[in-house]
Amino acid sequence: MQIYADNAATTKMSEAAIEAMTEGMRNWWGNPSSLYTIGQKAKEKLEEAREEIAAVINASPREIIFTSGGSEADNQALLTTALNGKKQGKTHIISSAFEHHAILHMLNKLEKNGFEITLLPVHDNGIIMLDELEAAIREDTCLVTIMTANNEIGTIQPIAEIGEICRKHGVFFHTDAVQAVGHLPIDVKAQHIDMLSASAHKFHGPKGVGFLYARKGIVLQNLIEGGAQERGKRAGTENLPGIMAMAAALKEAATSMEQNNAHISAIRDYIIKGLSEIPHSALNGDASQRLPGNVNFSFEGIEGEGILLLLDQKGISASSGSACTSGALDPSHVLLAIGRIHDVAHGSLRLSIGEDITREQADYIIGSVKEVVAHLRSFSPVWRDLTEGKKQIILK
Ligand SMILES: *Cc1c(COP(=O)(O)O)cnc(C)c1O
Protein backbone atom coordinates (compact mmCIF):
# COMPACT_ATOMS: atom_id res chain seq x y z
CA MET A 1 0.00 0.00 0.00
CA GLN A 2 1.27 3.50 -0.83
CA ILE A 3 0.03 6.28 1.42
CA TYR A 4 1.12 9.90 1.22
CA ALA A 5 0.73 11.31 4.72
CA ASP A 6 2.93 14.39 4.46
CA ASN A 7 0.51 17.00 3.13
CA ALA A 8 1.88 19.60 5.54
CA ALA A 9 5.19 19.43 3.65
CA THR A 10 3.61 19.69 0.25
CA THR A 11 0.54 18.46 -1.60
CA LYS A 12 0.01 16.78 -4.92
CA MET A 13 -1.24 19.20 -7.57
CA SER A 14 -4.94 18.85 -8.32
CA GLU A 15 -6.12 18.09 -11.86
CA ALA A 16 -7.80 21.50 -11.94
CA ALA A 17 -4.50 23.17 -11.07
CA ILE A 18 -2.55 21.18 -13.66
CA GLU A 19 -5.13 22.07 -16.28
CA ALA A 20 -5.04 25.77 -15.42
CA MET A 21 -1.24 25.72 -15.46
CA THR A 22 -1.06 24.06 -18.87
CA GLU A 23 -3.66 26.44 -20.21
CA GLY A 24 -1.57 29.36 -18.93
CA MET A 25 1.61 28.00 -20.49
CA ARG A 26 -0.02 27.14 -23.79
CA ASN A 27 -2.29 30.12 -24.35
CA TRP A 28 -1.35 33.01 -22.10
CA TRP A 29 2.39 33.23 -22.50
CA GLY A 30 2.40 36.96 -23.17
CA ASN A 31 3.95 39.37 -20.71
CA PRO A 32 1.14 40.93 -18.65
CA SER A 33 3.04 44.25 -18.74
CA SER A 34 3.00 44.42 -22.55
CA LEU A 35 0.52 46.80 -24.11
CA TYR A 36 -0.43 44.79 -27.22
CA THR A 37 -3.29 42.32 -27.20
CA ILE A 38 -1.28 39.19 -26.33
CA GLY A 39 0.08 40.93 -23.25
CA GLN A 40 -3.26 42.39 -22.27
CA LYS A 41 -4.92 38.95 -22.54
CA ALA A 42 -2.33 37.64 -20.08
CA LYS A 43 -3.01 40.63 -17.85
CA GLU A 44 -6.72 39.77 -17.89
CA LYS A 45 -5.96 36.22 -16.77
CA LEU A 46 -3.71 37.55 -14.03
CA GLU A 47 -6.43 39.84 -12.70
CA GLU A 48 -9.03 37.10 -12.96
CA ALA A 49 -6.85 34.90 -10.74
CA ARG A 50 -6.38 37.77 -8.30
CA GLU A 51 -10.14 38.25 -8.04
CA GLU A 52 -10.77 34.55 -7.45
CA ILE A 53 -8.13 34.36 -4.75
CA ALA A 54 -9.26 37.55 -3.02
CA ALA A 55 -12.86 36.31 -2.92
CA VAL A 56 -11.89 33.16 -1.01
CA ILE A 57 -10.50 35.15 1.94
CA ASN A 58 -12.98 38.06 1.66
CA ALA A 59 -10.32 40.53 0.53
CA SER A 60 -10.46 42.89 -2.40
CA PRO A 61 -8.24 42.08 -5.42
CA ARG A 62 -6.07 45.15 -4.84
CA GLU A 63 -5.08 43.72 -1.48
CA ILE A 64 -3.41 40.64 -3.02
CA ILE A 65 0.25 40.61 -4.06
CA PHE A 66 1.61 37.51 -5.79
CA THR A 67 4.87 36.12 -4.43
CA SER A 68 7.12 33.11 -4.94
CA GLY A 69 5.51 31.34 -2.00
CA GLY A 70 4.87 31.43 1.72
CA SER A 71 8.43 32.26 2.77
CA GLU A 72 8.58 35.35 0.57
CA ALA A 73 5.17 36.55 1.75
CA ASP A 74 6.24 36.11 5.39
CA ASN A 75 9.48 37.99 4.77
CA GLN A 76 7.75 40.86 3.00
CA ALA A 77 5.09 41.19 5.69
CA LEU A 78 7.70 41.39 8.43
CA LEU A 79 9.99 43.74 6.58
CA THR A 80 7.07 46.01 5.75
CA THR A 81 5.78 46.37 9.28
CA ALA A 82 9.29 46.64 10.70
CA LEU A 83 10.40 49.44 8.38
CA ASN A 84 7.07 51.26 8.66
CA GLY A 85 7.17 50.88 12.45
CA LYS A 86 10.70 52.17 12.71
CA LYS A 87 9.70 55.41 11.00
CA GLN A 88 7.34 56.01 13.92
CA GLY A 89 9.87 54.91 16.52
CA LYS A 90 8.15 51.57 17.04
CA THR A 91 10.64 48.71 17.11
CA HIS A 92 8.96 46.02 19.20
CA ILE A 93 7.52 42.88 17.59
CA ILE A 94 5.45 40.13 19.20
CA SER A 95 5.39 36.61 17.82
CA SER A 96 5.25 33.07 19.14
CA ALA A 97 7.90 30.49 19.92
CA PHE A 98 6.65 27.97 17.38
CA GLU A 99 6.41 29.98 14.17
CA HIS A 100 7.76 28.69 10.87
CA HIS A 101 11.43 29.46 10.25
CA ALA A 102 10.43 31.93 7.53
CA ILE A 103 9.17 34.07 10.43
CA LEU A 104 11.67 33.15 13.14
CA HIS A 105 14.78 33.65 11.02
CA MET A 106 13.53 36.99 9.75
CA LEU A 107 12.83 38.02 13.34
CA ASN A 108 16.41 37.07 14.25
CA LYS A 109 17.64 39.30 11.48
CA LEU A 110 15.44 42.18 12.64
CA GLU A 111 16.67 41.67 16.20
CA LYS A 112 20.26 42.07 15.01
CA ASN A 113 19.13 45.32 13.40
CA GLY A 114 17.82 46.91 16.56
CA PHE A 115 14.31 45.46 16.89
CA GLU A 116 13.14 43.93 20.11
CA ILE A 117 11.31 40.61 19.82
CA THR A 118 8.91 39.05 22.33
CA LEU A 119 8.10 35.39 21.66
CA LEU A 120 4.92 34.35 23.45
CA PRO A 121 4.84 30.86 24.94
CA VAL A 122 2.47 28.43 23.26
CA HIS A 123 1.89 26.24 26.34
CA ASP A 124 1.29 22.48 26.48
CA ASN A 125 -1.63 22.54 24.09
CA GLY A 126 0.20 24.55 21.41
CA ILE A 127 -2.00 27.62 21.71
CA ILE A 128 -1.11 31.12 22.87
CA MET A 129 -3.03 32.83 25.66
CA LEU A 130 -4.85 36.00 24.76
CA ASP A 131 -4.22 37.72 28.08
CA GLU A 132 -0.49 37.10 27.67
CA LEU A 133 -0.64 38.59 24.19
CA GLU A 134 -2.48 41.67 25.39
CA ALA A 135 -0.07 42.11 28.31
CA ALA A 136 2.91 41.96 25.93
CA ILE A 137 1.67 44.83 23.74
CA ARG A 138 3.58 48.07 24.40
CA GLU A 139 3.51 51.64 23.16
CA ASP A 140 6.32 50.80 20.74
CA THR A 141 4.89 47.52 19.41
CA CYS A 142 4.63 47.72 15.62
CA LEU A 143 3.59 44.14 14.83
CA VAL A 144 2.02 40.99 16.15
CA THR A 145 2.71 37.98 13.93
CA ILE A 146 1.10 34.69 14.95
CA MET A 147 0.54 31.76 12.62
CA THR A 148 -3.03 30.63 11.96
CA ALA A 149 -2.22 26.92 12.18
CA ASN A 150 1.05 25.27 13.07
CA ASN A 151 2.73 23.17 10.39
CA GLU A 152 4.03 20.50 12.78
CA ILE A 153 1.39 19.98 15.46
CA GLY A 154 -1.54 21.49 13.59
CA THR A 155 -2.86 23.64 16.41
CA ILE A 156 -5.14 26.51 15.43
CA GLN A 157 -4.82 29.88 17.12
CA PRO A 158 -7.77 32.12 18.07
CA ILE A 159 -7.12 34.38 15.10
CA ALA A 160 -10.24 36.56 15.26
CA GLU A 161 -9.62 37.28 18.95
CA ILE A 162 -5.95 38.07 18.32
CA GLY A 163 -7.01 40.38 15.51
CA GLU A 164 -9.49 42.13 17.74
CA ILE A 165 -6.90 42.75 20.45
CA CYS A 166 -4.43 44.12 17.88
CA ARG A 167 -7.08 46.43 16.38
CA LYS A 168 -7.96 47.70 19.86
CA HIS A 169 -4.33 48.62 20.52
CA GLY A 170 -3.60 49.92 17.03
CA VAL A 171 -0.97 47.26 16.31
CA PHE A 172 -0.61 45.56 12.92
CA PHE A 173 -1.52 41.88 12.86
CA HIS A 174 0.10 39.50 10.40
CA THR A 175 -0.64 35.79 10.25
CA ASP A 176 1.27 33.05 8.47
CA ALA A 177 -1.77 31.18 7.20
CA VAL A 178 0.14 28.86 4.89
CA GLN A 179 -1.26 25.74 6.59
CA ALA A 180 -4.74 27.21 6.86
CA VAL A 181 -5.61 28.74 3.50
CA GLY A 182 -7.61 26.21 1.51
CA HIS A 183 -8.12 24.09 4.64
CA LEU A 184 -9.90 26.38 7.09
CA PRO A 185 -12.39 29.18 6.46
CA ILE A 186 -10.59 32.54 6.40
CA ASP A 187 -12.25 35.93 6.40
CA VAL A 188 -9.68 38.69 6.71
CA LYS A 189 -12.34 41.27 7.57
CA ALA A 190 -14.22 39.29 10.22
CA GLN A 191 -10.92 38.09 11.71
CA HIS A 192 -9.34 41.59 11.71
CA ILE A 193 -6.28 40.39 9.80
CA ASP A 194 -4.02 43.13 8.41
CA MET A 195 -1.62 40.88 6.53
CA LEU A 196 -1.67 37.20 5.64
CA SER A 197 0.71 34.80 3.90
CA ALA A 198 -0.30 31.81 1.79
CA SER A 199 1.40 29.26 -0.44
CA ALA A 200 -0.14 27.35 -3.35
CA HIS A 201 1.69 24.06 -2.87
CA LYS A 202 0.02 23.54 0.50
CA PHE A 203 -3.44 23.43 -1.08
CA HIS A 204 -2.84 21.34 -4.22
CA GLY A 205 -1.38 24.17 -6.27
CA PRO A 206 2.14 24.35 -7.72
CA LYS A 207 5.35 25.05 -5.82
CA GLY A 208 7.06 28.41 -6.05
CA VAL A 209 3.96 30.57 -5.99
CA GLY A 210 1.98 32.16 -3.18
CA PHE A 211 0.47 35.44 -2.13
CA LEU A 212 0.53 38.13 0.47
CA TYR A 213 -2.67 39.84 1.52
CA ALA A 214 -2.10 43.36 2.83
CA ARG A 215 -5.10 45.39 3.97
CA LYS A 216 -5.83 48.52 1.97
CA GLY A 217 -3.80 51.42 3.28
CA ILE A 218 -0.72 49.40 4.26
CA VAL A 219 2.27 50.66 2.31
CA LEU A 220 4.24 47.56 1.38
CA GLN A 221 8.03 47.58 1.43
CA ASN A 222 9.70 45.73 -1.42
CA LEU A 223 11.84 42.68 -0.99
CA ILE A 224 12.51 42.65 -4.71
CA GLU A 225 13.18 45.89 -6.55
CA GLY A 226 12.81 46.28 -10.27
CA GLY A 227 9.84 46.68 -12.61
CA ALA A 228 6.43 48.02 -11.69
CA GLN A 229 4.65 44.67 -11.46
CA GLU A 230 2.23 44.11 -8.57
CA ARG A 231 1.63 47.86 -8.24
CA GLY A 232 5.36 48.37 -7.83
CA LYS A 233 5.52 46.27 -4.68
CA ARG A 234 6.98 43.07 -6.09
CA ALA A 235 9.14 43.32 -9.15
CA GLY A 236 9.58 40.55 -11.69
CA THR A 237 7.45 39.25 -14.55
CA GLU A 238 4.53 37.40 -13.00
CA ASN A 239 4.47 33.60 -12.94
CA LEU A 240 1.12 33.58 -14.71
CA PRO A 241 0.73 29.80 -15.24
CA GLY A 242 1.56 29.24 -11.57
CA ILE A 243 -0.80 31.99 -10.45
CA MET A 244 -3.63 30.63 -12.61
CA ALA A 245 -3.03 27.17 -11.15
CA MET A 246 -3.00 28.59 -7.62
CA ALA A 247 -6.37 30.26 -8.22
CA ALA A 248 -7.86 27.06 -9.64
CA ALA A 249 -6.55 25.00 -6.70
CA LEU A 250 -7.80 27.48 -4.13
CA LYS A 251 -11.23 27.76 -5.70
CA GLU A 252 -11.59 24.00 -5.64
CA ALA A 253 -10.26 23.71 -2.08
CA ALA A 254 -12.68 26.37 -0.87
CA THR A 255 -15.67 24.77 -2.59
CA SER A 256 -15.03 21.30 -1.18
CA MET A 257 -13.61 22.40 2.18
CA GLU A 258 -16.55 21.54 4.38
CA GLN A 259 -17.08 18.12 2.87
CA ASN A 260 -13.35 17.32 2.84
CA ASN A 261 -12.87 18.40 6.42
CA ALA A 262 -15.71 16.30 7.76
CA HIS A 263 -14.10 13.24 6.18
CA ILE A 264 -10.47 14.07 7.01
CA SER A 265 -11.08 15.00 10.64
CA ALA A 266 -13.08 11.82 11.26
CA ILE A 267 -10.15 9.73 9.96
CA ARG A 268 -7.70 11.92 11.91
CA ASP A 269 -9.54 11.18 15.15
CA TYR A 270 -9.65 7.50 14.28
CA ILE A 271 -5.87 7.43 13.78
CA ILE A 272 -5.30 9.42 16.99
CA LYS A 273 -7.43 6.92 18.89
CA GLY A 274 -5.52 4.01 17.38
CA LEU A 275 -2.07 5.42 18.09
CA SER A 276 -3.05 6.39 21.64
CA GLU A 277 -3.08 2.66 22.42
CA ILE A 278 0.70 2.59 22.06
CA PRO A 279 2.15 2.63 25.59
CA HIS A 280 4.23 5.67 26.59
CA SER A 281 3.05 7.83 23.75
CA ALA A 282 1.32 11.20 23.63
CA LEU A 283 -0.50 13.34 21.13
CA ASN A 284 1.22 16.68 20.53
CA GLY A 285 -1.02 19.73 20.43
CA ASP A 286 -4.62 20.30 21.35
CA ALA A 287 -6.92 17.42 20.35
CA SER A 288 -9.75 19.56 18.99
CA GLN A 289 -8.21 22.93 18.02
CA ARG A 290 -6.13 21.35 15.29
CA LEU A 291 -6.02 21.09 11.52
CA PRO A 292 -8.37 18.42 10.18
CA GLY A 293 -5.49 16.42 8.70
CA ASN A 294 -2.84 16.67 11.41
CA VAL A 295 -1.73 13.83 13.68
CA ASN A 296 1.46 14.34 15.70
CA PHE A 297 2.68 11.87 18.30
CA SER A 298 5.71 11.43 20.51
CA PHE A 299 6.84 7.91 21.39
CA GLU A 300 9.20 7.50 24.27
CA GLY A 301 12.52 5.69 23.82
CA ILE A 302 12.97 5.88 20.04
CA GLU A 303 14.07 8.25 17.30
CA GLY A 304 11.79 9.85 14.76
CA GLU A 305 14.17 9.13 11.88
CA GLY A 306 13.96 5.40 12.55
CA ILE A 307 10.16 5.55 12.49
CA LEU A 308 10.21 7.41 9.19
CA LEU A 309 12.57 5.04 7.41
CA LEU A 310 10.66 1.95 8.49
CA LEU A 311 7.31 3.53 7.59
CA ASP A 312 8.74 4.41 4.19
CA GLN A 313 9.59 0.73 3.68
CA LYS A 314 5.93 0.03 4.33
CA GLY A 315 4.90 2.58 1.72
CA ILE A 316 3.93 5.37 4.12
CA SER A 317 5.39 8.86 3.62
CA ALA A 318 5.40 10.82 6.87
CA SER A 319 7.55 13.32 8.71
CA SER A 320 9.36 13.41 12.04
CA GLY A 321 9.76 15.91 14.81
CA SER A 322 13.37 16.64 14.08
CA ALA A 323 15.05 18.49 11.31
CA CYS A 324 18.41 17.44 10.01
CA THR A 325 20.29 20.71 10.16
CA SER A 326 24.01 20.98 9.57
CA GLY A 327 24.42 17.23 9.94
CA ALA A 328 23.06 17.18 13.48
CA LEU A 329 19.59 16.05 14.45
CA ASP A 330 17.96 18.91 16.28
CA PRO A 331 14.63 18.22 17.88
CA SER A 332 11.87 20.39 16.53
CA HIS A 333 11.62 23.89 18.01
CA VAL A 334 7.85 23.44 17.94
CA LEU A 335 7.90 20.37 20.17
CA LEU A 336 10.35 22.05 22.54
CA ALA A 337 8.05 25.09 22.61
CA ILE A 338 5.15 22.98 23.89
CA GLY A 339 7.39 21.64 26.64
CA ARG A 340 8.49 18.29 25.26
CA ILE A 341 11.95 17.46 26.55
CA HIS A 342 14.74 16.82 24.08
CA ASP A 343 14.61 12.99 24.19
CA VAL A 344 10.84 12.81 23.86
CA ALA A 345 10.75 15.37 21.05
CA HIS A 346 13.21 13.20 19.16
CA GLY A 347 10.78 10.30 19.02
CA SER A 348 8.04 12.13 17.19
CA LEU A 349 5.99 11.46 14.12
CA ARG A 350 3.80 13.76 12.05
CA LEU A 351 1.16 12.34 9.75
CA SER A 352 -0.67 14.92 7.66
CA ILE A 353 -3.44 13.23 5.75
CA GLY A 354 -5.40 14.51 2.76
CA GLU A 355 -8.93 14.18 1.43
CA ASP A 356 -8.23 10.94 -0.43
CA ILE A 357 -7.44 9.04 2.79
CA THR A 358 -9.57 5.95 3.37
CA ARG A 359 -10.50 4.01 6.51
CA GLU A 360 -8.56 1.05 5.16
CA GLN A 361 -5.45 3.21 4.80
CA ALA A 362 -5.96 4.53 8.33
CA ASP A 363 -6.01 0.97 9.66
CA TYR A 364 -2.82 0.23 7.74
CA ILE A 365 -1.17 3.36 9.19
CA ILE A 366 -2.17 2.47 12.74
CA GLY A 367 -0.98 -1.11 12.38
CA SER A 368 2.29 -0.07 10.77
CA VAL A 369 3.13 2.58 13.37
CA LYS A 370 2.41 0.14 16.20
CA GLU A 371 4.68 -2.43 14.60
CA VAL A 372 7.48 0.03 13.87
CA VAL A 373 7.44 1.53 17.36
CA ALA A 374 7.54 -1.92 18.99
CA HIS A 375 10.32 -3.02 16.66
CA LEU A 376 12.49 0.05 17.30
CA ARG A 377 11.96 -0.20 21.03
CA SER A 378 13.02 -3.86 20.99
CA PHE A 379 16.63 -2.84 20.38
CA SER A 380 16.70 0.75 21.67
CA PRO A 381 19.20 1.22 24.53
CA VAL A 382 17.23 4.29 25.65
CA TRP A 383 14.06 2.24 25.87
CA ARG A 384 15.91 -0.44 27.86
CA ASP A 385 17.13 2.18 30.34
CA LEU A 386 13.60 3.48 30.67
CA THR A 387 12.04 0.09 31.28
CA GLU A 388 14.79 -0.89 33.72
CA GLY A 389 14.17 2.28 35.70
CA LYS A 390 17.61 3.78 34.97
CA LYS A 391 15.90 6.70 33.30
CA GLN A 392 12.61 8.27 34.15
CA ILE A 393 9.66 7.69 31.87
CA ILE A 394 8.01 10.98 30.93
CA LEU A 395 5.03 9.83 28.89
CA LYS A 396 2.97 7.67 31.24
C1 LIG B 1 5.34 25.62 3.97
C2 LIG B 1 5.24 26.74 4.93
C3 LIG B 1 5.87 27.97 4.69
C4 LIG B 1 6.76 28.19 3.50
O1 LIG B 1 6.06 28.23 2.31
P1 LIG B 1 6.87 28.07 0.91
O2 LIG B 1 5.87 28.33 -0.13
O3 LIG B 1 7.38 26.67 0.91
O4 LIG B 1 7.96 29.09 0.95
C5 LIG B 1 5.70 28.99 5.60
N1 LIG B 1 4.93 28.82 6.69
C6 LIG B 1 4.30 27.66 6.97
C7 LIG B 1 3.46 27.55 8.18
C8 LIG B 1 4.45 26.58 6.10
O5 LIG B 1 3.84 25.43 6.38
Explain what the structure shows:
By secondary structure, the protein is an alpha/beta fold. It has 2 domains: 241 residues, Aspartate Aminotransferase, domain 2 (3-Layer(aba) Sandwich); 131 residues, Aspartate Aminotransferase, domain 1. 41% of the residues lie in helices and 16% in strands. Strands 2-8-7-6-5-3-4 form a 7-stranded mixed β-sheet, with helices on both faces. The protein has a 4-stranded antiparallel β-sheet with strand order 9-10-15-12. A two-stranded parallel sheet has the order 1-11. The longest helix has 36 residues. The chain is globular, with a radius of gyration of 22 Å. The two termini are 32 Å apart. The mean pLDDT is 96. The structure holds pyridoxal-5'-phosphate. The site of pyridoxal-5'-phosphate (PLP) has 15 residues, from α3.
Write the layout of secondary structure elements.
Layout: E1 3-4, H1 15-27, H2 37-56, E2 64-67, H3 70-87, E3 92-96, H4 101-112, E4 116-120, H5 130-136, E5 141-145, H6 159-169, E6 172-176, E7 195-199, E8 210-214, H7 240-275, E9 281-283, E10 294-299, H8 304-313, E11 316-317, E12 319-320, E13 322-325, E14 328-331, H9 333-337, H10 342-346, E15 348-352, H11 359-378, H12 381-387
Parallel strand pairs: 1-11, 3-4, 3-5, 5-6, 6-7
Antiparallel strand pairs: 2-8, 7-8, 9-10, 10-15, 12-15, 13-14
